[in-house]
Amino acid sequence: MNLHHLAIFHAIAETGSISAAAIRVRVSQPALSRELKDFEGRLGVMLFERLPRGMRLTEPGKVLHAYSARLFAVADSAQAAMRDFADARAGQLSMGASNTIGTYVLPRFVAQFRTLFPQVGISLFVGNTGQVAQGVADLRFTVGFVEGPVRVEGVVAEEFSRDELIPVVGAQHPLARRRRANPADINGLPLLMREPGSGTRELIAELLRELDVQTGSIVEFGNTEALKQAAIHGGGIAWLPSISVVRDLQDGSVLRLPVRALGLQRPLSILRREGAYQVPAVEAFLQRVRKG
Fold first, then answer.
1. Where is each HTH lysR-type domain found (predicted)?
2. How far apart are CA 13 and CA 32, in angstroms?
3. Cα separation of 275 and 254, whole Å?
4. Cα–Cα dist 97/286, whole Å
5. 90: pLDDT confidence band, cut at 50, 70 and 90?
6. What pLDDT score does 262 carry?
7. What is the rounded CA–CA span in Å between residue 217 and residue 5?
8. Which uninterrupted H or E stretch holds 155?
């Protein structure tokens, strides 16, 4: 069935006249009449009774109108749905984030975004940098947020902020009350680290090699909060994001080691699949993150 002819029929059925339908579909009245006659000829039935004042549906016309009404209602709904996508009012925001960003940075933005765009579905996976980068590469995540270096083919990184990793110890640690120290003072001391695959661990390991620090025993933790609690209770030296220990430094439960060389500045990056299409909802969320 010719959809153009069906649209003309639907316009006449909805408006009740050739003249009103011609205005709706932006076709001249004579052309509209010819199109309708051709449509009826193709179907082999009369769709309208021609009256002095307007058009009245025949029985076949009433049946066809019921179908056309459903069809064009679906088309209108589809157009509205696409408009919602274009206006960032719909879509799915599937994100992966490494630990610090997923725990301390993104929740605020997710809450704000949810208030502004309640129809957008949101999911957030929190893991390590390797897991997030691979998830973006595999298209399991629309977008990723990481703190460490990324070496996954097909994934591009965009820095949106920076963070400081600071070396801390619990209040009872032997180095806690030192006013001055140097990298050699931590030779052989127990260290608290994230698990292999963590971008944070890679950065710290590279720094210790550059400073020629001899690492002691290493205890691994799967998230920042567990790492912090171990440091508080005297488990060893930990490098923690400054954003995660603001209150702990204030109340003295952890102390920063006075060794400037052991501090690390690191980029916070947005990861996306190279060349992948991003729905407007994703771009709207990223704009808020970039602005901070």
1. 1-58
2. 13
3. 44
4. 13
5. low
6. 92
7. 79
8. strand 155-170
Residues 41-51: tens digit of each pLDDT: 999 999 999 88
Partners of 94 in the β-ladder: 123
Backbone angles phi, psi at 214, to 5 degrees: -90, 110
CA distance 184 to 83: 61
- Which has more pLDDT, 75 or 216? 216
Q: How far apart are the C-alpha atoms of 120 and 87, rounded to whole Å?
A: 11
pLDDT at 84 over 60: no
At 75, the amino acid letter reads: A
User: CB–CB of 290/109 below 8 Å?
Assistant: no
Across 226-251, b (16+ Cβ under 10 Å) vs e yields: ebbbbbbeebbbbbbbbebbeebeee
Q: What is the pTM of this model?
A: 0.65
- Residue 256, class by beta-carbon neighbours within 10 Å (0-12 exposed, 13-18 middle, 19+ buried)? middle
With tokens 């999911």, the residue in question is 123
User: What is the widest separation between alpha-carbon atoms in the chain?
Assistant: 103
Handedness of CA 218, 219, 220, 225 (dihedral sign): negative
- Separation CA 255–CA 274 (nearest Å): 42
pLDDT value at 256 more than 70:
yes
Beta-carbon contacts of residue 235 (< 8 Å; ≥ 6 apart): 170, 190, 192, 219
